Each structure stands twice: as C-alpha cells, then as structure tokens.
C-alpha cells in the first residue's frame, strides 16, 4: 500500500479512490445520486407471510446526464408501480409522473430495478422523490417464524437480517455499504404484535395499530432491521432496554443486569461518545440464523446465548463495539469487511481488558486464534479467502466469503498497528480521533492507514526512510496466517491448566487417576471450550472419549450413531427453522434434492456476528464444527 501520497478530490470532497469505488456486489448506479433519506410504509401480513407497502426515496442527481435510477432488488420482491415527484419550478405545483421500469437479472442473490427518469424534470443537483409500491414475501432478508419456532410457541414472529446483501429483498435500495442515509418507517401490524426497528426514535399509535420509526443518523442499507412479534421490554439502564418474548424476558434481564451501561461507559472512555442514543437488545428465538447482529440502536441476539454468561458477555460487548467500528465508521465495500470486524474485535478486547482484565481477554483471544489456525489448516496457506483485502469475482455472494480471517487476522493487523505506535493508550486516542474524523461515513483501508500515519508522523518518517519499513501491503494482500500475533502470555494462568489436561489426554496411555484429580468445576466456559477444541484437534480420538463430546449431526452420521441422529432430527425438526432443517436433511440423507438456493441456509448466510457460521468454500467440504467456531 502506498503511504501518504496526496489524493485529488472529486464530488462532495470525497477522495478519488472513493469516486472510483466499485462494488461488484451492487447492480445500482449509486455514484450518480445523493440519497438523502428514504421512508418505508409497510403492512405486515403474518397469515400469508407477506410485506406490502411502498418506499419513498429522496434523491439528488450528482452527475450530469443521468437517465435512469438503478436499484438493487431481488426476485422475491414484486414491484407494482414507480412514481416520481419533482418540485415545481418557482412556486408551481409538484409534478407527479408515473415511471417505466424493468427488472434485470444480476446474480443469484439479487436482481436490478432499472427505472427510466424523464429528462425534462431530472436536473443535476435538484432533488426529486421516487415512490415504489411493492410486495415482498420470503426473500433472504425476511425470516417468518411460525408460532412453533418461537420461544413462547403462541404467536408468530418475523425478523429481518440485512447483512451483507440481503436487504435488497426487503426494499429496493443502493445495497452497498458505501451509501448511507437516514430513514423512517411506518409499520402496520395486527393487534398484539410489537414492532421494533434499528431506529433512534419510535412511537406507537394503539388506536391505529401503527408503529412509527425514525433513524436520525445515516446508516447503510444492510443496517436497516425490523422484528415483529410478541415482544415485551424491561429497562436495564438509562439508555438500554431488553426486549424479548415474555417467557424469557426475566432470564434475559437477570443475566445482563446492570452490565450493559457499564460496558457502554468503558467503551466511551476508550473510543469517545456513543453516538446512537439508545442501546437496546432484542432476544430472538433459537432459530435466529446467527448469534448476533449489530443493528444500530437495537442489537439482535439469539436467546440460546443465555445458556452461557461468558458468550453473552463477549457477544454483547462485540456488538457494542460495532457502535463505533462498523456502524459509525463502515467498510465502503464488502471486500474490506475487516475494517468493521477486525476493528470491532480489537475494540471488544480493549473493553474486556478494561472491564475483566488481561487474563480473561487473552484466554478468549487464544481460543479464537486457535479456531483461526484450524481454519488455516483446512484451507491451506495460499487460499485467497485468507486475504484481508479480498477480491470478489462478480456473482460471488459477499456473505459466502465472510470468515475468521475477517475477524481474527483483522484483529491481529490492528494489534500490529497498536504495537507500531508503541503505546496502547496512544493507540486508543488514535482510534478516538479516527471515529471523530470518519463518523457516519464509509472508508477504505487507505483512509485508515493514511490517517494512522498522519496521527503518528514519526512512523511515516521512518517508513519513508526505509521504504519497505512497514508491511501494510503484505498484511492486506498476502495469503496465509497473520504476519504476527499479539503477546497472549497474560492468559497463562487460565490457558495453562487447559493445555496440561490436553497433554494428559493426549498421552499414548492416558492415566485416569491423574486426570480425575483435575477440578473442572472452577473452569470458565472458555476454558472448557478451549479444552474440547484442542482435544478434537488431536483426532482421531479413542472411541471411548469421542462419542460423548461430539453431539453433532455430521459426526454422528459418520459412524454407527446415524440412526440416533435421524431419530433426533425427526423428533425436533418441527422446531427448526426451515433453512436449518434443509441443511440437516442434506447432512443426514446426503441428498441434493433439497433446494438451498432460494433462501440462505445456515452455512451460506453469515452474519456480522462474533460467532459466525461461515463456509468459505461453500462446497460443504468443511465440517460444521470448523465453520461454526466463533470469532
Ligand atoms: Zn462483528
């Protein structure tokens, strides 16, 4: 990566690099417009699993000669009509025009909506409004859960999941993280249904059964999120509230206690003010396809995480960290997702270091880096998915390339930057300044690195003096493991006993008497998980050890336990989300008859969550355990 170098400016003061920014995952012509705001007016129909309504986009052309508006959309979204409203000149009434449009194929994860704009009324830098009436059903963004799939099992629930490129099936949009705008929404639902959105303000009219939302801060399309169902709330802090189905609300509140405000305070001490106003959390049924999603103002999290205090803590802190890294400052393309995930993981660990100490943070890091090394072994040293700056071929779904490298190699690179500056607190102040400078915008790696070298001019000087002194280019574009990893020896007190027990089990003739002297009751969840992972790394294990530790369908299917796996599947399938059901059917029956292309499967719809189901090869050669390890 070139260091420093002056860049010329183009439209809106953006750097040249931004103006030439190509997002191969978007069919839209987002460069041609400024999107100021959009509004959604939606009616949710649970009986037929359908959302009907309209969307109003407020746009200003920023290039001359714009003749069409191209938005990302999806075959599951049916457009009924498109209108355009242009303000009349000097006091004349607004002009409303019906516009022609066509849908064109794009990739297997979306299509494009190409709207012709009348030349007579579309002028550069003059705002106009486009209204799109549409219906959307069961696209990849929208997850309708029958009552049996919820915790309470009494009412249906629906939620949306936009990351990375799914929201084009929720509403037509510039579905690229390079574009941010404010939004508002009006949502009409049946009686007894509560609606929440990733918005900074909300209101409810009981009489009309209408919810109103407004997000006052600009966000990319993938961070627009909605959940509707039988949800109740309890306040857990001055700016935080827990939402959940009634049957798990008490548990969720007691597990979180007053911690959320404490974590927010620690994060603010490190990285500056939390800019989103509220930080609420909604717990979703176990069929939520991912662990957690950093939707601004309203983290979505899976309710089964309540089983583990430590995973709950880490995942909520990770989502809080996204309030700064990922949400306030966003990667401009999905090819540089590490700018969100690597920085959020670094920030999460700075927060846990302040709140829970070095040893705890190092233990958590050790077990995630173990998972990274495991993925490395599976993929080989030269696999391009291990690059921080991935190159997407057209047609490749960005979600399918989300992997542990995004999180953990990204984390190691950020740690390397902090080591370069030589003082962790000075690096905190750099991150504060970075947020201040780029808040509510989208960045590329060069923005971060230029700002870094501007903040630490002594590094820039030594870099210029040595030319190849800094290794940014190798970090960003090299395959393979991180060039270096942070020192984790502060975790020894917690990881030492784990390794000792692993060594005892790994002996040719394990000695049960010695092993039985270990007191595991004092171990934390992360110690236990690290132990099990490291034990599994020694596979094949003696049969006597293996079976009790591997309750996974894939492992069961590989041995004499397949009948048991099939039986468990038949007993529980009604409670599984259809997408998970399909994945398990494939594992159990090795059949390609089940269609996984119409909706995201467990393996192919990864989240921006610390614990991500990822399938970098998307061909099923990687075991579930290896792709589900958390980052
Ligand atoms: Zn994340």
Automatic annotation (TrEMBL):
Q: In what ranges is there compositional bias, type Low complexity? A: 599-618
Q: Which residues bind Zn(2+)?
A: 318, 322, 341
Cofactor(s) the record lists: Zn(2+)
Cofactor binding, note field: Binds 1 zinc ion per subunit.
Name the Gene3D superfamilies on file.
3.30.2010.30, Neutral Protease Domain 2, tricorn interacting facor f3 domain
Positions of the Peptidase M1 leukotriene A4 hydrolase/aminopeptidase C-terminal domain = 493-588
Query: What SMART domains does the record point to?
Result: Leuk-A4-hydro_C (SM01263)
Q: In its UniProt record, which GO terms are filed under biological process?
A: proteolysis
One Pfam annotation reads: Peptidase_M1_N
Question: Segment Disordered: which positions?
Answer: 599-621
Keyword Zinc attributed = yes
- Active-site residues are 319 (proton acceptor), 407 (proton donor)
Keyword terms of this UniProt record: Hydrolase, Metal-binding, Metalloprotease, Protease, Zinc
Q: Does the keyword Lipid metabolism apply?
A: no
Q: Name one GO molecular function term.
A: zinc ion binding
Q: Which family does it belong to?
A: Belongs to the peptidase M1 family.
Name-wise, this protein is Arginyl aminopeptidase like 1
Q: Which organism is it from?
A: Cyprinus carpio carpio
């Amino acid at each position: 990566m070139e260091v420093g170098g002056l860049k010329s400016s183009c439209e809106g003061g953006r750097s040249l690099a931004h103006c030439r920014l190509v997002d191969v995952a978007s069919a839209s012509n987002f460069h041609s417009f400024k999107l100021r705001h959009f509004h959604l007016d939606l009616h949710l129909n649970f009986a037929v699993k359908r959302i009907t309504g309209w969307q109003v986009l407020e746009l200003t052309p920023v290039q001359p000669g714009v003749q069409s508006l191209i938005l990302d959309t999806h075959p599951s979204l049916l457009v009924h009509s498109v209108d355009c409203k242009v303000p009349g000149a000097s006091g004349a009434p607004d002009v409303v025009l019906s516009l022609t449009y066509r849908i064109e194929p794009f990739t297997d994860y979306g299509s494009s909506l190409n709207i012709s704009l009348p030349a007579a009324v579309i002028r550069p830098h003059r705002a106009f409004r486009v209204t799109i009436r549409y219906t959307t059903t069961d696209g990849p963004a929208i997850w309708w859960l029958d009552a049996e799939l919820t915790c309470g099992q009494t009412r249906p629930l629906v939620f949306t999941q936009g990351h990375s490129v799914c929201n084009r099936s929720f509403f037509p949009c510039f579905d690229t993280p390079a574009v941010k705008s404010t939004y508002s929404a009006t949502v009409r639902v049946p009686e007894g249904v509560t609606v929440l959105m990733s918005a900074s303000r909300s209101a409810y009219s009981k009489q009309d059964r209408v919810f109103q939302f407004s997000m006052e801060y600009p966000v990319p399309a993938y961070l627009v999120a909605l959940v509707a169902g039988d949800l109740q709330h309890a306040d857990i802090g001055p700016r935080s509230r827990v939402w959940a189905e009634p049957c798990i609300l008490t548990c969720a509140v007691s597990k979180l206690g007053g911690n959320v405000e404490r974590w927010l305070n620690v994060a603010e001490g490190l990285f500056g003010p939390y800019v989103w106003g509220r930080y609420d959390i909604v717990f979703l049924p176990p069929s939520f396809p991912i662990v957690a999603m950093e939707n601004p103002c309203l983290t979505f999290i899976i309710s089964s995480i309540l089983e583990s205090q430590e995973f709950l803590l880490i995942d909520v802190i990770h989502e809080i960290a996204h309030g700064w890294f990922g949400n306030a400052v966003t990667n401009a393309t999905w090819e540089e997702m590490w700018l969100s995930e690597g920085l959020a993981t670094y920030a999460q660990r700075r927060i846990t270091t302040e709140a829970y100490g070095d040893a705890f943070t190092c233990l958590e890091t050790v077990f995630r880096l173990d998972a990274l090394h495991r993925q490395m072994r599976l993929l080989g040293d030269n696999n391009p998915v291990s690059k921080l700056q991935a190159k997407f071929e057209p047609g490749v779904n960005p979600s399918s390339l989300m992997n542990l490298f995004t999180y953990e190699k990204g984390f190691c690179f950020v740690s390397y930057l902090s080591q370069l500056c030589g003082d962790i607190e000075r690096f905190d102040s750099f991150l504060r300044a970075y947020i201040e400078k780029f808040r509510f915008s989208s960045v590329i790696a060069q923005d971060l690195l230029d700002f870094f070298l501007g903040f630490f001019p002594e590094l820039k000087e030594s870099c210029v003096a040595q030319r190849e002194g800094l290794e940014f280019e190798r970090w960003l574009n090299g395959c393979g493991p991180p060039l270096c990893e942070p020192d984790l020896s502060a975790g020894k007190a917690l990881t030492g006993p784990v390794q000792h027990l692993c060594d005892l089990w790994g002996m040719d003739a394990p000695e049960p008497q010695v092993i039985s002297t270990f007191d595991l009751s004092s171990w934390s969840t992360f110690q236990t998980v690290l132990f099990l992972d490291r034990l599994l790394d020694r596979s094949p294990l003696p049969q006597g050890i293996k079976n009790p530790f591997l309750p996974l369908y894939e492992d069961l299917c590989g041995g004499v336990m397949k009948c048991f796996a099939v039986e468990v599947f038949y007993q529980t399938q009604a409670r599984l989300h259809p997408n998970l059901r399909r994945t398990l059917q494939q594992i159990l029956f090795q059949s390609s008859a089940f269609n996984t292309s119409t909706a995201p499967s467990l393996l192919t719809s990864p989240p921006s969550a610390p614990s991500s189901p990822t399938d970098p090869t998307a061909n099923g050669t990687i075991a579930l355990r290896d792709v589900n390890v958390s980052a």
